[in-house]
């Protein structure tokens, strides 16, 4: 098989994959809308009746609380962490961009960081 045929086949398969994903996403979106409406009705019913759960022959519907935390003002947050030695409020992970910049300057990564590079093939459609 010629390389041109391999590239042509790759692009055709990638296009098919994109088409299938678009179809899936469209169908999933419609289902998600219906699920959201049902959840809203259940939550309203629970609130009105003072319930947290209801058991039915088909399954149990129940409420739970989801929590999220995000940083609104990074400088203020970091000042608070440092001033109060509240380092437990931070997660232990490194910035890929920061490590890339460090590596570009020092030709190595900071101590304690694993770095992996992988060479991959990309295919671009002809213009």
Give me the count of strands. Answer: 2
The rounded distance between the terminal residues' Cα atoms is: 23 Å
Main sheet makeup: 2 strands, antiparallel
Low-confidence stretches: none
Query: Structurally, how many domains make up the residues?
Result: 2
The best one-word shape is flat
Mean pLDDT: 95
Radius of gyration: 25 Å
Structural class: mainly alpha
Please report which band the strand proportion falls in: under 5%, 5-15%, 15-25%, 25-35%, 35-45% or over 45%: 5-15%
Strand order of the largest sheet: 1-2
Order of helices and strands: HEEHH
Question: How many helical stretches?
Answer: 3
Residues in helix, %: 40-55%
Overall description:
The longest helix has 47 residues, at 3-49. By secondary structure, this protein is mainly α. The protein is 54% helix and 6% strand. The protein has a two-stranded antiparallel ribbon. The chain has three helices and two strands, in the order αββαα. The model has no long low-confidence stretch (mean pLDDT 95). Strand 1 (53-56) and strand 2 form a beta hairpin. The protein folds into two domains: 1-67; 68-118, no CATH class. The protein is flat, with a radius of gyration of 25 Å.
Question: Which features characterize this protein?
Answer:
127 residues, mainly alpha, 2 domains, two-stranded antiparallel sheet
Question: Can you lay out the helices and strands and say which pair or pack?
Answer:
Blueprint: H1 3-49, E1 53-56, E2 59-62, H2 74-83, H3 96-106
Antiparallel strand pairs: 1-2
